[in-house]
Amino acid sequence: MSSANLDMSFAGNFCRKWSCRPFRRPKSCISQERNGIMLGKIKNCTSSVGYNGVPSTEISCAPNAAASQNELPPLVSALKASAEENAASFHFPGHNRGKAAPSSLTQLIGSKPFLHDLPELPELDNLFSPEGPILEAQKQAARLFGASETWFLVGGSTCGIQAAIMATCSPGDTLILPRNSHISAISSMVLSGTLPKYIVPEYDFNWDVAGGITPSQVHKAIKELEMEGRKAAAVLVVSPTYHGICSNLDEICEICHSHSIPVIVDEAHGAHLGFHLKLPSSSLSQGADLSVQSTHKVLCALTQSSMLHMQGNLVDRERISRSLQMLQSSSPNYLLLASLDAARAQISENREAIFYQTIDLALEAKSLISKIPGISVLEFPGFSSFFHIDPLRFTIGVWQLGLSGFEADDILCKDFGVVCELVGTKSFTLAFNLGTQRDHVLRLVAGVKHLSKTSHLHQPLKDEVKNVNHFACFDDVRMSMSPREAFFAEKRKVSIRDSLGEICGELVCPYPPGIPVLIPGEIITEKALSYLLEIRSKGAVITGAADCSLSSFLVCVT
Fold first, then answer.
1. CATH code for the domain in which residue 145 is found
2. Looking at residue 14, what is its pLDDT?
3. What's the domain count of the chain?
4. Cα diameter, the chain
5. Is the same domain home to 270 and 150?
6. d(Cα 85, Cα 531) in Å, to the nearest integer?
7. Which one of 73, 147, 227, 465 has the fewest beta carbons within 10 angstroms of its own beta carbon?
8. What does the alpha-carbon distance between residue 308 and residue 156 come to, in Å, rounded to a whole number?
């Protein structure tokens, strides 16, 4: 074939790709024609109704009765079509659609994922300026979750929380938040220059578990700021908590909105809420302005994939977009993005029944395990902030067996292959999801029965372990510098003994659950040090500290 003919034979297939960057609807439809899904002139599609019933000029790709039963979600379809092109790829990433993939990695995951590990090609849209399949995927997610707008996140819920706080709080503003918030909320205050107004959640002494925050606590915090001549820029609520405890968001949102204060909900553990009558209501249905959900935790997206949802007019959407563009990678992984689209579609296809089996298995497991001698099941802790609990989060107490949660977890993992999600001093927590099988439940029950039968082999928990209030380290939080000031201040290293009373210069956080105990700018207390040393001795991993042995700390030079 002559060079002229060669040029002509390929021109029709590939010139349209490289001449239309950024995304252009008319030219990007070709790769999706095979599936009957085109963004522009679309087969089996009609114009859609926009948010709040306003007619939209966009064309919806939502499947209708005439559409193929095998129709793929928009971003999944676009990624599949692009990967199937017979392309001569002179673009990133360097493995070149798997042709140069490391053999050790292909032995682990095969070669197919590399075909779909593509950059922001024109037909795949742009995460930060979406016009095509990403835009459509996010719109479909917004409709499913009840948002006016949804953003896909490839930096986990961490970047979603950071963006939400940066979009609502400016330097010097005050954010009301629980003292046991995730590390992402603390890093957000460093990034934004926001000042914290902490609420200390109620604490269940028997379980060594913190609850959510109450409407009365939020109201009190707002009033205290008003007496100081200040107004909260936003309120952050963690609901559900890692243990599945849900706050009364309906009342909290009503209180905040009466003061024109937006409510951000860290709903990382609750992307599934509202999709079954036995599940608690979602935060958006209760009035939250912003909700950040880890779609990978209970739903079926890939790890690190999350969503940020918005509704109402108290938050500037453009500021959210600008914040996300600063915080997220400029080279987002399209497998992560496509997994969000696929997880949304999976729920949409069978939203009324998809959680039936999972909930039944969780309730069955709780019923069987609650009858085992010496075992406690977290259902109704003794505090008022316990408004609701997620039935798919199951916390088992083992202190009556003379075991710590860390010891019980070690036995279950080594002897029964049961892997827990969260381990505490007195309990361990299990996360049920759509992939939970009956065999998993049977192994769990057998393992817990074994713990009970062999309890005579264990020494009773020491009184200082049984009776200590581990949440007491948050009782006397004193801030000498803002988190941002302390983060950038000059530091010096001192021994743990000499650190008492000094200003903490680092963020010290046991993980899981990722709740910081010492934050830059706070005075180091004996209670905080005692808790960190004890939980580390029980097997927790301490993150953030320059000295992971905790023999020394970084403190601020004043």
1. 3.40.640.10
2. 38
3. 4
4. 87
5. yes
6. 57
7. 227
8. 10
Please compute the mean of the pLDDT values over residues 199-214 and round it to a whole number. 84
Residue-level pLDDT at 457: 65
424 shares a domain with 329 = no
Strand partners, 353: none
What's the confidence (pLDDT) of residue 206? Answer: 79
Residue with the bigger pLDDT between 180 and 287: it is: 287
Residue 296 to residue 294: CA distance in whole angstroms: 5
Give me the amino acid identity at 512. Answer: P
Judge if 448 and 498 occupy the same domain. Answer: no
Residues 315 and 215 in one domain: yes
Distance from C-alpha of 246 to C-alpha of 534, rounded to nearest angstrom: 28
CA distance 279 to 204: 23
Which band of pLDDT confidence, cut at 50, 70 and 90, is reported for residue 474? confident
Provide the pLDDT for residue 459: 63
284 alpha carbon, distance to own chain's centre: 16
Q: Please determine, for residue 346, whether its predicted confidence score (pLDDT) is greater than 90.
A: yes
Q: Are residues 456 and 406 in the same domain?
A: yes
Average pLDDT of the segment spanning 144-168: 97
Nearby residues of 307 by Cβ (< 8 Å), 6 or more positions away: 141, 145, 150, 151, 152, 153, 160, 271, 292, 293, 295, 340
Q: pLDDT band at 201, cuts 50/70/90?
A: confident
Last residue of a domain, one of 349, 366, 390: 349
Domain, as residue range, for 389: 356-467
Same domain, 27 and 59: yes
Asked whether residue 194 falls in the same domain as residue 330, the answer is yes
Q: Is pLDDT at 303 greater than 70 in this prediction?
A: yes
DSSP 432-498: --TT--HHHHHHHHHHHHHHHHTGGGSPPPPHHHHH--GGGGGTT--BSS-HHHHHHS-EEEEEHHH
Q: Are residues 447 and 539 in the same domain?
A: no
